[in-house]
Design goal:
Blueprint (H helix, E strand, L loop, with lengths): L3 E5 L4 H17 L3 E8 L14 H17 L8 E8 L2 H8 L5 E5 L7 H15 L4 E4 L10 E5 L7 H11 L5 E8 L3 H14 L9 E7 L3 H11 L4 E6 L2 H8 L15 E5 L3
Parallel strand pairs: 1-2, 1-4, 2-3, 4-5, 6-7, 6-9, 7-8, 9-10
Antiparallel strand pairs: 5-10
Helix pairs in contact: 3-4
Length: about 270
Amino acid sequence: MINRVLVPIDFSIGSAAALRYAEAMAVSMGAREVRAIHIFTPQTVAGDATMVAPVGELMDAREVAMNDFLREIPAPEGIRRRSELLLGFPGDKIVEESKSTDLVVLGATGESDVLEQVFGSIASTVAQRSHCPVLLVPAQAVFEEYRHILYASNSLSLSRRAVLKLMDFNELFRARIHFVHVNDDNSEHRREREKLFAPLFNNPDPEFAFEIVEVTAESVQEGLVKYLRANPVKLAVMVTQHRGFWERLFHYSNTKQMLLHPEVPVLIFHLEH
């Protein structure tokens, strides 16, 4: 059950969209509180420590900016919004704060569809290291009740533990799950998938609707984006076990990084937590 939602904000349009999305999602899930945090690191001028403003003055200025920012985004009825200023390095601090929350929601920072250009290196750090699921929300996304969820499948993500995580999350929405595998024409991988699916879905009346789809494409990225654009999916789910998996998926040198559908948020589960 997701009760504690954390939304780091940087006063950008993307983080405003993330906060709206997170609070609308919290209403749908029955969560009562959303915590908005702004993290900053006092910077010296040209490396001269004597030129940095007192921390108290910086905190006061950021608090004014925070209040102005939040005033423009009214919290929906039934949601208690807490806000807090924190000192530190944003990526590290968000990862630390993720230990005491159920979901981190991060917004876009740019116009491109490429992961780090959209969400920034901080989001990449949090996605890899967070102690709870992370939801990456493109700036154009507006929350709607999930009716269709894409689950990017491979031998790791189709483990029983991973699918049970998905089933637990989907208990809130009862969406139809699209298990999408990008066909690599590897018969050994196909046999592995069949073995995994057999025990997972041997119930003749499963608790949620699903379909298993194979997409032929030159790359995982291309296949997933193609499927997202052709189907009414409102959320994509991916599973990581460690940093190496994330890097292999998102940082191929020949494709740079995974192209995200401009309107579909990506939820990242971590199996080690």
